[in-house]
């Protein structure tokens, strides 16, 4: 008994196990109950379906007549018997067996009888059986009843289960219409199609204006409703967006354009200032307040409608580019260009206005390829939008996205893009970040006082105040909500690396491309941020481009400017002599164009500022004097704006190198003669010449050129009678060149014209005459005109007769 009882005794389960099993049992019970309910409902539906099918089959089925079998003729029976006998193996059978088989064949059986025959199975008939009447053999026809429509009611619950309830739908008796005699003329009129009256052009215009007004009012009402309460009326955006599919060919193009612009303005107004992220499964399952739920619905609807709107704009542009006529025939293929231009304008506005919102990277991918479009208006629109975005981007995320897409496009198109695409990169705000300052700011700051020092040097109250002050300072920094500098520097560094990758690829693989001027200009702008490791190779590449002779004058100026920007920043620590760049600029100065809009002058002035003024310690006096003399000669044959800029650069040179005032004297210093044809400024003996060009410029037709020439002749004083005004003296040469520009071929300031040489005639008006005197004068003039004759010969003869008579 002992061991048996021990075996039968079960171990008590733990509470956790009981809890776990009970939960499983409850789940299984719930699943079984649900499965039974589903199976019973499914079975019930199946039975009802079978019942309805049986009723419809019975009501619609027409019975076929009974099959009548005809007795075969005797000839056919004999032939069948012969065939049966032939099929038997007669040679192997006895005569008695053969006769027995024939007798069996004559008997009716299921195996041997002809099923098509109408003879009964048993040969004998009962005496009581009567022959079948003819009317019994006729097929029965059941009276077909119309299937009545059922209405399913709520079921009744009983002990046995649910009992379905239904009732017949009541039939409303239709009133019998009295048949009226129909004339033949009316039938003919009904058969003929209705003829739409043709409208005159004036009526068509009026009809179009009426339809357009209705559409505009509808658009205005929807837009104002959304703007008034976006959280409640967000669903009306869908109705407004549906008008992009306008099918009326009379107003389709105009309505679609207006809807695009209306949706643009609505989205710019109602879009929040943050990015909307999708909700997680846990957030969706959690219970929230009514206001939070309404906000979530608004955000979800806003994102979906914004996405559909962008897809519609993109599809419109694709239809225009692929020259496909889609959706409907309401818009002709020629009108797609205007629609596409409006769509591109809306996309560009969204690119600039909503850089923080969802799908901004998708907009960038749409806009950047259109920057190289063959249509000038489209490319200018996209380039302007990208430039504006790069200028106003403070965080750097949008700039990084744009630069990545541009880099991929330039490489994918094998550098076959417009220079304006790379010119947009000059608008990047990376120049504002100073690397040294940022490294100092990002370095870990040392605490002013350690804890031990505070404990020893400060009292308890002072430590309390210090703690409160630190807490307040921390809260103020959090309240600013400014982007961290570390993140900003990382984004700017990555962006700049991609920009330099674009530039270096073009310098290496496409030196004869039209993109080279833009590359050189970009390198000149961001040269102070290039790594020191690339300086030596980059300078050798730039000098090779200059000496190759394949560059234009503007491109060579960009090469020189880039080289000196590199050397003026971090390149100060490098021991590189840029003498060859000085000599090249000195040699090519006189090739500057003298007429028309000359934008190269601004680059020359920038080069002179970087090469001579900012590097004054590395420039010799002879080099400065040589450039001063060459620039004075150059100013004689340039337009007034360029001459003012060159003379302002000479003034800066004379202030930087005061000993250059020896060129204002006729005395010679040292041996040698000035050699203007020499290309090296140090060896052309500039100290043995004078600035005689200033005497010619003093008689220039432009007043500002005369003023600067007189100022330089007096030694460019900062004070006194020959000094310039404070406004002019503070301007740089480049600013003066732009201020007195002659782009429109007009003088700035305007030059007064010469006085007129015509004599002034004093005419007496009617106001100076008396009324009586005026009447007398008019009468005398009238009499004189009547007496005077145009026959001069008669007057001459009269005068001769008088003289002879005297």
TrEMBL record:
Keywords: Coiled coil, Nucleus
Primary localization class, coarse: nucleus
Domain called CCAAT-binding factor: residue spans: 556-709
Record carries keyword Coiled coil: yes
Domain Nucleolar complex-associated protein 3 N-terminal: 215-309
GO molecular function: chromatin binding
Compositionally biased region (Basic residues): 1-19, 42-52
Pfam families assigned to the protein according to its UniProt record, in alphabetical order: CBF (PF03914), NOC3p (PF07540)
Basic and acidic residues composition-biased segments: 58-74
Gene Ontology BP term (one): DNA replication initiation
Sections of the chain in a coiled coil: 451-487
Family as reported in the entry's similarity comment: Belongs to the CBF/MAK21 family.
Name of this protein: Nucleolar complex protein 3 homolog
């Amino acid at each position: 008994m002992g061991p048996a009882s021990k075996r039968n005794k079960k171990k008590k389960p733990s509470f956790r196990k009981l809890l776990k099993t009970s939960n499983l049992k409850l789940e299984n019970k719930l699943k079984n109950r649900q499965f039974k309910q589903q199976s019973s409902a499914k079975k019930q539906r199946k039975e009802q379906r079978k019942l309805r099918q049986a009723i419809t089959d019975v009501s619609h089925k027409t019975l076929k007549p009974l099959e009548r079998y005809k007795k075969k003729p005797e000839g056919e029976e004999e032939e069948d018997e012969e065939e049966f006998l032939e099929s038997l193996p007669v040679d192997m059978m006895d005569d008695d067996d053969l006769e027995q088989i024939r007798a069996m064949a004559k008997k009716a059986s299921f195996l041997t009888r002809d099923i098509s025959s109408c003879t009964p199975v048993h040969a004998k008939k009962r005496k009581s059986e009567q022959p079948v009447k003819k009317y019994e053999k006729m097929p029965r026809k059941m009276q077909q009843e119309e299937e009545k429509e059922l209405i399913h009611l709520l079921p009744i619950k009983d002990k046995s289960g649910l009992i379905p309830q239904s009732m017949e739908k009541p039939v409303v008796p239709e009133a019998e219409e009295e048949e009226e005699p129909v004339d033949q003329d009316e039938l003919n009129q009904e058969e003929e199609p209705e003829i739409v009256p043709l409208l005159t052009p004036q009526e068509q215009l009026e009809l179009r204006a009426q339809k357009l007004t209705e559409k505009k009012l509808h658009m205005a009402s929807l837009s104002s409703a959304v703007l008034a309460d976006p959280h409640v009326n967000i669903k009306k955006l869908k109705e407004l967006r549906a008008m992009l599919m306008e099918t009326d060919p009379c107003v389709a193009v105009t309505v679609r354009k207006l809807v695009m612009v209306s949706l643009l303005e609505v989205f710019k107004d109602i879009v929040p200032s943050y990015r909307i992220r999708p909700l997680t499964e846990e957030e969706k399952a959690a219970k929230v307040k009514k206001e939070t739920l309404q906000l979530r619905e608004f955000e979800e609807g806003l994102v979906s409608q914004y996405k559909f709107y962008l897809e519609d704009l993109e599809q419109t542009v694709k239809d225009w580019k692929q020259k496909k006529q889609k959706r409907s025939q309401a818009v002709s293929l020629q009108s797609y260009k205007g629609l596409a231009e409006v769509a591109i304008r809306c996309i560009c506005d969204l690119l600039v206005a909503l850089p923080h919102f969802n799908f901004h990277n998708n907009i960038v991918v749409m806009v950047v390829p259109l920057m190289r479009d063959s249509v000038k208006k489209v490319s200018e629109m996209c380039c302007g939008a990208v430039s504006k975005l790069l200028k106003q981007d403070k965080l750097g995320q949008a700039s990084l996205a744009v630069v990545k897409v541009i880099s991929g496009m330039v490489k994918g198109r094998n550098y076959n893009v417009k220079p304006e695409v790379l010119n947009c990169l000059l608008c990047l705000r990376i120049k504002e970040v100073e690397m040294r300052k940022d490294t100092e700011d990002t370095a870990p700051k040392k605490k002013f006082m350690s804890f031990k020092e505070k404990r020893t040097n400060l009292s308890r109250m002072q430590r309390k105040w210090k703690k409160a002050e630190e807490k307040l300072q921390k809260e103020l920094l959090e309240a600013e909500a400014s982007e961290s500098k570390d993140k900003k520097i990382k984004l700017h560094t990555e962006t700049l690396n991609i920009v330099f990758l674009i530039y270096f690829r073009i310098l290496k693989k496409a030196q004869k491309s039209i993109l080279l001027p833009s590359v050189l200009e970009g390198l000149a702008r961001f040269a102070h941020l290039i790594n020191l490791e690339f300086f030596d190779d980059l300078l050798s590449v730039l000098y090779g481009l200059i000496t190759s002779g394949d560059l234009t004058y503007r491109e060579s100026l960009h090469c020189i400017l880039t080289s000196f920007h590199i050397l003026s920043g971090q390149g100060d620590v490098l021991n590189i002599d840029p003498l060859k760049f000085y000599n090249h600029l000195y040699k090519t100065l006189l090739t500057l164009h003298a007429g028309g809009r000359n934008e190269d002058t601004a680059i020359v002035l920038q080069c002179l500022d970087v090469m001579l003024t900012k590097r004054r310690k590395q420039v010799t006096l002879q080099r400065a004097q040589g450039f001063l003399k060459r620039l004075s000669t150059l100013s004689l044959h340039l337009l007034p704006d360029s001459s003012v800029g060159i003379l302002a650069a000479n003034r800066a040179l004379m202030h930087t190198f005061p000993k250059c005032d020896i060129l204002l004297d006729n005395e010679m210093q040292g041996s040698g003669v000035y050699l203007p044809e020499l290309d090296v400024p140090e060896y052309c003996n500039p100290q043995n010449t004078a600035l005689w060009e200033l005497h010619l410029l003093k008689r220039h037709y432009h007043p500002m050129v005369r003023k600067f020439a007189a100022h330089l002749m007096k030694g460019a004083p900062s004070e006194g009678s020959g000094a310039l005004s404070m406004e002019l003296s503070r301007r740089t040469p480049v600013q003066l060149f732009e201020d007195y520009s002659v782009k429109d071929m007009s003088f700035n300031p305007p030059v007064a014209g010469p006085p007129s040489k015509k004599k002034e005639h004093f005419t007496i008006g009617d106001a100076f005459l008396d009324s009586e005197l005026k009447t007398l004068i008019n009468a005398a003039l009238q009499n004189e005109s009547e007496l005077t004759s145009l026959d001069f010969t008669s007057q001459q003869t009269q005068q001769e007769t008088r003289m002879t008579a005297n």
